[in-house]
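FIELD: query
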Amino acid sequence: MAGITWRCQEITIRYHRAFILGMICLWTAMIFGSNGLVAAPLDELPLDRWKDLRETERYQMQIAEKYYREQNWKIAAGEYEKFITLHEKSSGSAFAQMKWSICQVRLKKLNTAIKDGFQSVIDYWPESPDAMVSAYYIGHTYKDMGEIKQAKKAYQQVLQKYPKASVAAYAAVDLIDLATLEDDKQTLNTLWKKLTFDTERTNDTRSICENASRQYASHSLYHGGSKKAAKSLSTTYVETSQLVDQLVVLSIQAINQLMQDEKNRTQAEKLADDAINHVRGAMPADISTPEQKLFSQNCWFAIARLYDATKRPEQSDETYKLTLEKLGRNDEILAEYARWRKTQGKYEEARQLYASYENKIEGLSQIAYSFREQQKWPEAIAVYQQLAGMDAERQFDWLSQAASTHRQAHEWMQAINIYQELMAKDADRADSWLWEIAYTYRISGQYKEAIGYYRQCNNFPGNYQEMAICHRALKEYGEAIVLYNQIVGTDENWAPWAMIQIGYTREEAEQTEQAIKAFQQVCKRFPKNQYASQAHAHLQTKYKITVTLGGAKDE
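FIELD: result
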């Protein structure tokens, strides 16, 4: 609702509270705008109601709506009031009164909005759809005022009077928000259950109910096990594979929370075993089709990950072996098994799996990458050289990986030699290899050589930016400023960035007065640009100078 500012309060609850709060934030982002106003369609007039308006009524309503969309709340309120005065018996009067009330909220006149606005809609047009929306807005406005008791009372009235309407779902979300902050688990459980099983899923409420089903499932994992959680998730996920995926994700989240405290290990293992039994029960007996085989494979992976979440590596390892036994060897299973082995620090065993890939090129690529993960640079480079000899189609890409590995190892000249070889052999990408040479020189601290190569590159203004960095590293501040000025005069999009860099360069050169002028110029020439804000903050923080975006004055 208009003008509402959400309050974020840090509250410590037991292990699963962090997940609940995260989901509440997601709900808020989905259902409310950045300033808290409930999103369409609650504050929009449906098309069928527009059709009921006479031409003069429609004209006046369009004027009011125009100012509302422009967030000119005072004028919009006046136009809605004019509509009510001119067309008191119109079918749009209740809506105009409700929108007038929202404008009052925007104008920070919250009591006026409730008593003279939303309540008037309920009193004078009780059968109008705007009455139930106004009832919701009353609760939301009280919540914004910090009148929590009044807000709860208003929300409960919405739930009781309009149980099937979409506003009831919105009211439930707000009550969930309050219950979370108050650690009221009973209310949370009741509302999640209501939204999951008892609320009709329309276009307006579907996302709310689906989120509730996940919330209730997460809660159920702690208090009722996987069967109860699966029942909740089944209201949202019809496909068995999707339901299993969600159940496993939520189970692992709960297990991770529990495993943070060794006292909860038994509960965590019980939860994992419960989820594993559910996954096993969902596995297809027939795996004759690719779809069934893939689902079975994912189920085995899920079981292994559930064991892994409870730190039972023997069971995880046995599960991966069973997967290969039941489904046969394929690169996808081998990749997942190898990934897990690496998490256990068993890189040599992982590489044995990669070596048995059907796709030998991909297997070698993974072996090379695993060496890089361990910072075993010579071994990785040797594999990339082997790949370059085996895979003629991607020879240059593998040589590039070898050069990149040399660079990670700080073997600068070996990397440069490969890039020079690539320049000679791969003319189509000569500019890219030229840039890599320049970049290698720069990160190795060989700035003069880097400048020479950047000068040959064609990707302005990127090459000028890099050359300026090199000149600054060499304390050649004048040369850097010349390059920045060329960017300012040539590329309008990069001009603000280049100008603020001039200011920083002047600072590095201890040219304080000229630095201040450069920062002020950014504010003056580009007042709406992000770099103007940055320059503004820098002038205030470092030099205690007050700046008005569009100019600057010393205090």
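FIELD: remark
The CA atoms of residues 366 and 530 lie 42 Å apart.
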